[in-house]
Amino acid sequence: MPKNASLLDRREAAGRIRLCHGDLHLRNICVLDGEPRLFDCIEFNDQIATVDVLYDLAFLLMDLWHRGFPQFANLVMNRYLDDADDEDGFVLLPFFMAVRAAVRAHVTATQVEEGSRDSAKLIAEARSYFQLAKTLLTETPPRLAAIGGLSGSGKTTVAEALAPRIGTPPGARIVESDRIRKAMHGVPAETRLPDKAYRPGVSERVYRQLAWLSELILAEGGSVVADAVFDKPEDRDRIERAASGANVPFAGFWLAADPSVLWRRVSERKGGPSDATVDILSRQLQRDAGALTWRKIEADRKVAEIAAEMAASIGGIAPSEVSVRKKTGS
């Protein structure tokens, strides 16, 4: 893949090749004293363990996807990129995951040659890794899905359920207005911002950044799920132009729910990047959102149903419901 070669060279020049864990799969992670701990890293050979940081992450993502946890693979990927500011490497993840899957297939097949008692199981498992590698190397055209709605409509939860279903594993990059706003102010996503951080001028900058970042990822061949209120026509127009600018399909969804449902959800919300309160929701309800051309989705339903409806209308969904391991019966 020539485009990967040039990008890999740029990442090396940017210092993205480092001494890493080297063997970061699920069996080398545990929870100790309530915190995740990594162990059994490659310590015997610095050359083997010196890799692209995203190649290190790709082992964990591949393992999660193969074991039937696409939602976790997508979530780990998104949270890592939120913190690491490594957007240019996002499009390399399917390739990195494919290499990891192929290596795991080779290692598993070697165990069969060595005369393991569970040869039938190992053969099926090796084949499932090869099938996953093949899937990961199949290019999927990028697309942009935007999810809007008032506070409490469940945008972020739905976005996290939809993202694994779009594009090549590990799924779509979630570009979230709340996280962009917190990053602009240099604080963690869970930190509450003062009211001045939500002035119209600041919000315009947030939506511009959201559209710019979406177009950047789309232009590189990645898929995006944009998550924001989008209650202003100019903000909806801007994100649609991001898709047209990158010449990719666009799907806009508006999550709608009865005000009483929104009030209950906002008042009961704890934690997370959103600073929305019932007062903010009240102001949103009084504001005219203008003519809505996006597909209206009833939000007071199971998240899985909403995500499935969205994915079906977008098309080109990733094999997220059933992992390759389950398909082969291994």
Quick overview:
This protein has 330 residues and is α/β, with parallel strands linked by helices. Helix content is 51%, strand content 12%.
Task: Describe the secondary structure blueprint for this structure.
Layout: H1 2-13, E1 17-19, E2 29-32, E3 35-38, H2 46-49, E4 50-52, H3 53-66, H4 70-84, H5 93-113, H6 119-136, E5 144-149, H7 155-162, E6 173-176, H8 177-184, H9 200-219, E7 224-227, H10 233-245, E8 250-256, H11 259-268, H12 278-286, E9 295-298, H13 303-314, H14 324-328
Parallel strand pairs: 5-7, 5-8, 6-7, 8-9
Antiparallel strand pairs: 1-4, 2-3
Helix pairs in contact: 3-4, 3-5, 5-6, 7-13, 8-9, 9-10
What features would you describe in this structure?
The chain has helices at residues 2-13, 46-49, 53-66, 70-84, 93-113, 119-136, 155-162, 177-184, 200-219, 233-245, 259-268, 278-286, 303-314, 324-328; strands spanning 17-19, 29-32, 35-38, 50-52, 144-149, 173-176, 224-227, 250-256, 295-298. It has a 5-stranded parallel β-sheet with strand order 6-7-5-8-9, with helices on both faces. It has 2 domains: 2-136, no CATH class; 144-314, Rossmann fold, CATH 3.40.50.300. The chain has 14 helices and 9 strands. The model is unreliable at 318-330 (pLDDT under 50). Strand 2 and strand 3 (35-38) form a beta hairpin. By secondary structure, the protein is α/β, with parallel strands linked by helices.
* Helix content class: 40-55%
Report the biggest beta sheet as strand number plus sense, adding barrel if it closes: 5 strands, parallel
Please indicate the count of domains: 2
**Beta-strand share of residues:** 5-15%
Indicate the low-confidence ranges by residue numbers: 318-330
The chain-level structural class is alpha/beta
Q: Which CATH class of the largest domain is shown?
A: Alpha Beta
Report how far apart the termini are.
31 Å
What's the helix-strand series? HEEEHEHHHHEHEHHEHEHHEHH
CATH superfamily of the largest domain: P-loop containing nucleotide triphosphate hydrolases
Radius of gyration: 21 Å
The CATH topology of the largest domain is given as Rossmann fold
Put simply, the count of helices is: 14
Query: Can you give the mean pLDDT?
Result: 91
Shape, please? elongated
Biggest sheet strand order reads 6-7-5-8-9
- For the record, the CATH architecture of the largest domain stands as 3-Layer(aba) Sandwich
